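User: Watch each token:
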Amino acid sequence: MTHAEPIATNPRAAAPAARAIPDALRLLSETLEPERRLVRAGDPIYRAGDRLGCLYVLNSGVFKVVNLTADGREQVVALKFKGDWLGLDGIAGGRHTCDAVAIDTGEVWMLRYGALLDAAQRRPELLQLLLQAMSREIAHDRDALMSMCTLPADARVAEFLRYWADALEQRGLRTEQITLRMTRAEIGNYLGMTLETVSRALSRLARDNVIAFCERGRREVRIPNIAALHGFVQRSLTPASPMLQ
């Protein structure tokens, strides 16, 4: 199933999240001394079928999670940012069910799964971190289905941009200008749309002054007001919405 991002957002949650992420990383670093791995765009952390040995936490960079469809095509199903966990899919069966691939330069922390469980018996806050990561994935899947079922094309792209900007804001990073580390084809794959539909939606958002493209390239997107993106999405949910499907 193709995934989009959650519709609902709480701007007041950004500041606590910006504090929670470094606090969580500090706890993991102090208690588990994770192995640190530098990655570049295109580097995989694990592949579908690999045996679960570690869970992974992003210290920097952006990752995509990819599933293979029945006919062998790749389907992007999730994006991960600093502080997010990777590898939870492998816990149930002992093997990973998808690929995790870097789309930006970054650093990944490798946490041995057995060591994490042992440490969690002594430090319950570690178990809480793991459960919170699982809960976020469950909520993401639920909200993704809602987005796919309710949003027209333009709003889906607007929601994607809002989600990316919100992810940066929650990590204390600048949001007025973002660099999309995905091609139009990858964005379309992620949102269940064609490359052409993504391009047209971005052009319409720019024409409506919801976003603007920077001079150095169309991967550089300026977002004057995140609230305007959120408002655009909300207006699309009204029965009288004139936007094209």
